[in-house]
Write a structure and sequence with these properties.
The complex is a heterodimer of chains A (about 250) and B (about 90). Chain A contains nine helices and nine strands. With about 250 residues, chain A is an alpha/beta fold. Chain A has one domain: Spore Coat Polysaccharide Biosynthesis Protein SpsA, Chain A (Alpha-Beta Complex). In chain A, the strands form two sheets. Chain A has a seven-stranded mixed sheet with strand order 3-2-1-4-7-5-8. In chain A, strands 6-9 form a two-stranded parallel ribbon. Chain B has two domains: about 40 residues; about 55 residues, no CATH class. Chain B is an all-alpha fold and about 90 residues long. The longest helix of chain B is centred in the middle third of the chain and has 22 residues. Helix content of chain B is about 75%, strand content about 0%. Chain B starts with a helix and ends in a 5-residue tail after the last helix. Chain B is elongated and about 90 Å long. The chains are: A alpha/beta (about 250), B mainly alpha (about 90). Chains A and B meet through helix 2, helix 3, strand 6, helix 6 and strand 9 of A and helix 1, helix 3 and helix 4 of B. The structure holds guanosine-5'-triphosphate and magnesium ion (MG). Chain B: This is Dolichol-phosphate mannosyltransferase subunit 3.
Chain lengths: ~250, ~90
């Protein structure tokens, strides 16, 4: 209890942004894990759910969760229709009261148990950004077949060669940012989808922000449909080449 | 400078060096064995880089961690969470 008291007094507050689209089954689970993680580690936090009018009733579940955990811990910032991930972060951030922002997927691919490690890492090097990485140290994935591993490693290799970004996982979206840093980055980023996450790191380097890394295990979604599909490789390559030519 | 410009710069410097030596523009008399090596050097380098890339990617795919434990732990926590949330009155 004494330890957690100290952490609260440190004045840092962590706003977790959870963008959701059809995550009715996952949202309660991720929120439960988050609440437990923050309760055990004692950091001050809030969870901001940005639902984009999910037809499966994600928002209704979020309202139930707000009743259970309190409206100071669970904030709902829904939007009427699906407007994409990038703008969801901007929208959520406008309502964030923390001085740090944690961005993660709501589909249980990103486990809250890594958040205390992110925070420790941030404090250790006073980093502007801490990025989870599947590609180094004990990081890894679960539920990926050979083809997906090959595409992922191949894309990562090409990106490393062309952009030399100084971070090992560019397309991951489990990260901790200083709020003002995230604000500046989001203003500058123009791309969508996977490339958006990549551009954030590239722009961060341009602006001389410091980046720390924490290995994470990425467990493929158990519930729900994958939404980024189809021609994602083509749009990834286009985005990569655009960054290559313009940054 | 953009990454593209960096690449173009580096490639043109290397290319110019190659042309200069290969066509003996400076009048240096390189020994014949060296001249014979110089002519196909760009192709060699390309092949070496290609092999390095394939080997690196292959190795990284083969050693990509499978987080079985993380998946199992998550499954347990999901059941625990569902039980607890049901107690707290959540209707799934
Ligand atoms: N608010 C909002 N959230 C979104 C939108 N698209 C995706 N999301 C959420 O963003 C997170 C990441 O999306 P995912 O569909 O999991 O994308 P992914 O991880 O690349 O792909 P899979 O896990 O294979 O489905 C999840 O929490 C989604 O619910 C959107 O348009 N608006
Ligand atoms: Mg996902």
């Amino acid at each position: 209890m004494a330890a957690s008291g100290n952490k609260r007094k440190s004045g840092d507050k962590y706003s977790v942004l959870l963008p959701t689209y059809n995550e009715r089954e996952n949202l309660p689970l991720i929120v439960w894990l988050l609440v437990r993680c923050f309760r055990d580690s004692g950091y001050n936090y809030e969870i901001i759910v940005i639902d984009d009018g999910s037809p499966d009733g994600t928002l209704e579940v979020a309202q139930q969760l707000q009743k259970i955990y309190g409206s100071d811990k669970i904030l709902l910032r829904p939007r009427a229709k699906k407007l994409g991930l990038g703008t969801a972060y901007v929208h959520g951030m406008q309502h964030a009261t923390g001085n740090f922002i944690i961005i993660m997927d709501a589909d249980l691919s990103h486990h809250p148990k890594f958040i205390p490690e992110f925070i420790r890492k941030q404090k250790e090097g006073s980093y502007d950004i801490v990025s989870g990485t599947r590609y180094s140290g004990n990081g890894g994935v679960y539920g990926w077949d050979l083809k997906r591993k090959l595409i992922s490693r191949g894309a990562n290799f090409v990106t490393q060669v062309l952009l030399r970004p100084g971070a090992s996982d560019l397309t991951g979206s489990f990260r901790l940012y200083r709020k003002d840093v995230l604000q500046k980055l989001v203003e500058r980023c123009v791309s969508k989808g996977y490339v958006f996450q990549m551009e954030m790191i590239v722009r961060a380097r341009q602006l001389n922000y410091t980046i720390g890394e924490v290995p994470i295990s990425f467990v493929d979604r158990v519930y729900g449909e994958s939404k980024l599909g189809g021609n994602e490789i083509v749009s990834f390559l286009k985005g990569l080449l655009t960054l290559f030519a313009t940054t | 400078m953009t990454k593209l410009a960096e690449w173009l710069l580096a490639l043109s410097v290397l290319g110019a060096a190659w042309v200069t030596l290969n066509f003996n523009l400076l009048g240096l008399d390189l020994p014949p064995p060296l001249q014979q090596l110089l002519w196909p050097l760009p192709v060699y380098l390309l092949v070496v880089f290609g092999c390095y890339s394939l080997a690196t990617i292959g190795y990284r795919v083969a050693t990509f961690n499978d987080c079985e434990d993380a998946a199992r732990e998550l499954q347990q926590q999901i059941s625990e969470a569902k039980r607890d949330l049901a107690l707290k009155g959540l209707k799934f």
